[in-house]
Design brief:
Blueprint: H1 2-15, H2 17-38, E1 43-51, H3 64-75, H4 82-89, H5 92-101, H6 110-116, E2 117-121, E3 127-134, H7 137-193, H8 198-237, E4 245-250, E5 256-261, H9 263-333, H10 338-342, E6 343-347, H11 360-396
Antiparallel strand pairs: 1-3, 1-6, 2-3, 4-5
Helix pairs in contact: 2-11, 3-9, 5-6, 5-7, 7-9, 8-9
């Protein structure tokens, strides 16, 4: 049954082969007329750009590293990837300037030119290709080249505007930081010029420590002498003697004090003198220790005060230096052509000599397939119409 139906289909195609051939031929002729006569040849001009990333994706009270980071973020051009560049190439500013430069206001609108421009990126590279098809090869090349150059100028102007704005802020803030730095220096100078500063107190403390050390060393010698006198008195007491003796004992000066006394009395006097000196030294040591404690408190207060002011000076100095450094960088960056630094032209567009459209062979192939399809459909439809008409007549008879 299926073989009979297939046979019938083939017979219909053979029967209507002239119709199919005519429709196919007409389709090919029409496609040829449009491809070779009606449609004008179009040419594709292309320009290749290479981009580079100029962004960074760019160091105690005030965090100076954050000051540097803030200044870097302000002065750096934002991170630019390929997609960002693609969007900027078709920005209204760039397209409008291109139309105006080439006096194409009557031929293109911003939206119309945007649709005519094709942007392509090469995978794993920093290359952007700008393409445009036009019936005039010279105009296509001119539009593409002008668009590319305007895009580079656009990036440069945006970077300059950003740098100028940042430059103005940094310049103003630099003067503020300079005043703060000078004020802190004056404050430190006034503090250091005051009497009994931290340095003077430190020297006085050092002298007092040396003196108390000397006192304690003398006290230790006197205590040893006192212990010796106690033992001597005990020893002398064990010997009873009524004879006097002559004792030569050095006085405080270079002269000698000669006394006539027995040994016990002489030792007792010497012991009393030693204990008196020990008592006097202990009092002097206590007074000196109290004085040292007062000096230490005073020194710590002065040192803390000076440290606070010195830290203020250091922070003001480093902050001011950061602004000065960034000011110099921005002064150079303000005149730099960032667009030319970040975007380079690898290949300019030249007027093409070989058209890319219309694709005549492809159009003819499509017309052939389309003609055959329409011809087969018409053949089957005509056969169905004819057969259904005969069956209707037979049923009426």
């Amino acid at each position: 049954m299926e073989e009979i139906e297939l046979r019938e289909l083939i017979e219909i195609l053979i029967k209507r082969k002239k119709t199919i051939a005519m429709i196919t031929l007409v389709s090919i002729v029409l496609a040829s007329i449009f491809s070779f006569i009606v449609l004008k040849p179009t040419y594709e001009a292309k320009m290749v750009l290479m981009t580079s990333d100029l962004g960074t994706n760019g160091q105690n009270g005030l965090d100076l590293a954050k000051v540097d980071e803030m200044l870097n973020l302000m002065s750096q051009y934002p991170d630019m990837n390929l997609e960002t560049y693609r969007q900027q190439i078709k920005s209204p500013e760039v397209l409008s300037k291109t139309i105006k430069d080439l006096s194409l206001e009557d031929e293109y609108t911003i939206e119309g030119l945007s649709q005519r421009i094709v942007l392509e990126t090469v995978k794993d590279t920093q290359l952007i290709t700008i393409k445009m098809e036009h019936t005039d090869p010279e105009e296509a090349a001119l539009v593409v080249n002008t668009l590319g150059k305007n895009f580079i100028s656009f990036v440069t102007e945006r970077a300059k505007a950003r740098a100028a704005k940042t430059f103005e802020y940094v310049q103003t803030q630099m003067e503020v930081e300079k005043e703060k730095y000078e004020e802190s220096l004056i404050e430190l100078k006034e503090l250091l010029s005051q009497p009994r500063g931290a340095k003077e107190l430190s020297l006085e403390l050092s002298s007092s420590f040396n003196q108390i050390t000397e006192y304690k060393s003398t006290l230790n010698d006197l205590e040893v002498k006192r212990d010796g006198l106690f033992k001597a008195i005990e020893k002398a007491a064990s010997y009873s003697s009524n004879k006097g003796s002559v004792v030569a004992r050095p006085n405080l000066g270079d002269s000698f004090n000669i006394s006539f006394d027995d040994s016990n009395k002489v030792l007792a006097v010497d012991l009393a003198e030693t204990e008196g000196r020990i008592e006097s030294l202990n009092k002097q040591i206590l007074d000196l220790q109290k004085h040292i404690e007062e000096l230490q408190v005073e020194y710590q207060d002065k040192q803390y005060e000076e440290d606070v002011v010195q830290q203020k000076v250091d922070i003001s100095k480093k902050t001011y230096e950061s602004f000065v450094s960034k000011y110099e960088e921005l002064r150079v960056a303000e005149t730099a052509k960032v667009g030319e630094l970040s975007i380079s032209i690898i290949s300019s567009a030249y007027p093409p000599t070989r058209p890319v459209g219309p694709r005549k062979a492809l159009n003819l192939a499509i017309s052939l397939v389309l003609g055959l399809m329409i011809g087969v459909f018409v053949a089957f439809f005509a056969e169905y119409w004819e057969s259904s008409g005969k069956e209707g007549k037979l049923s009426n008879d």
